[in-house]
């Protein structure tokens, strides 16, 4: 199989692609640039293409298909940036990535602890050599009720790991799991909103989940609720969140992802004027943590994202099935 890789990160991904070359006997080349109509010719003569999270729509897919590309993999769990239906119509088979859920689950719990202990304020004051206690009191995670929305592999792992803290847990998902029921109680969304001190999101960025947390949802929550989002920015209506922070309905927000982050995260924008007013407003709050969509980013996860997507495309090219193939 001949593979062309777009948006290659030479500092962390390249060594894993080289391992795949040895393991599977593939040949590959790459560019550090994201795919665009200006550089699609780089994939000429390749059977497979690997991309990351930038939009892959009809125009790009038609060009790929015309060049003979038959397999397309995204090195991410989410695949909403790819028009999978159009790809399948053009005869391109699409795969997504799978990686250890521990990475995002660990990061999620870290954000919970940082929010509970008001770490932004503590560190800011420490830098000024103010070591007094005023205004720095925190909450104990063990005494909180945590609402977990979405109990797929990551949400399930969050529940399992949180069980060691002894906190009460509520969960919501269309599909319930016995493994989750050992530690959490499945409830309706309305009840989860009403009773949770902390709400953490672990659902996919699908159209039906757009702005799941809107003004009406925030109105149902406890005053001072802590929101954790290490899933997708589009799940939260940012205007509603800002209003909730201003009113005190939301006591803290720890966000690893925000709306309209394409063209921002994973790029060095130092010194640029960034046209993202929502993020600017959120960054002005002392009770908000913004991290640049880094929850997944561990050595194990990057190894999995490269290795498993390459393996999936190799299997498809050999006429075998892959559990990572996405069909619509």
Can you put this structure into words, describing what you see?
The protein is an alpha/beta fold and 328 residues long. It has two domains: 2-99 and 298-326, Rossmann fold (3-Layer(aba) Sandwich); 102-290, 3-Layer(aba) Sandwich (Rossmann fold), CATH 3.40.50. 34% of the residues lie in helices and 16% in strands. It has helices at 14-24, 58-66, 84-89, 102-116, 119-127, 153-162, 178-181, 189-195, 215-219, 238-247, 277-283, 299-317; strands at 2-5, 27-30, 48-51, 71-74, 93-95, 145-149, 168-172, 185-186, 198-201, 225-229, 250-255, 288-290, 325-326. A seven-stranded parallel sheet has the order 8-7-6-9-10-11-12, sandwiched between helices. Strands 2-1-3-4-5-13 form a six-stranded mixed sheet. α4 packs across α6 (153-162).
Secondary-structure map with pairings?
Layout: E1 2-5, H1 14-24, E2 27-30, E3 48-51, H2 58-66, E4 71-74, H3 84-89, E5 93-95, H4 102-116, H5 119-127, E6 145-149, H6 153-162, E7 168-172, H7 178-181, E8 185-186, H8 189-195, E9 198-201, H9 215-219, E10 225-229, H10 238-247, E11 250-255, H11 277-283, E12 288-290, H12 299-317, E13 325-326
Helix pairs in contact: 1-12, 4-6
CATH class categorisation of the largest domain? Alpha Beta
Query: What are the low-pLDDT stretches, counting only 5+ consecutive residues below 50?
Result: none
Coarse structural class: alpha/beta
Counted up, domains total 2
Q: What is the CATH superfamily classification of the largest domain?
A: NAD(P)-binding Rossmann-like Domain
Q: Could you tell me the strand content as a percent range?
A: 15-25%
- By DSSP (H or I, 4+ residues per run), the number of helices equals 12
- Please trace the helix and strand order, writing H or E for each element: EHEEHEHEHHEHEHEHEHEHEHEHE
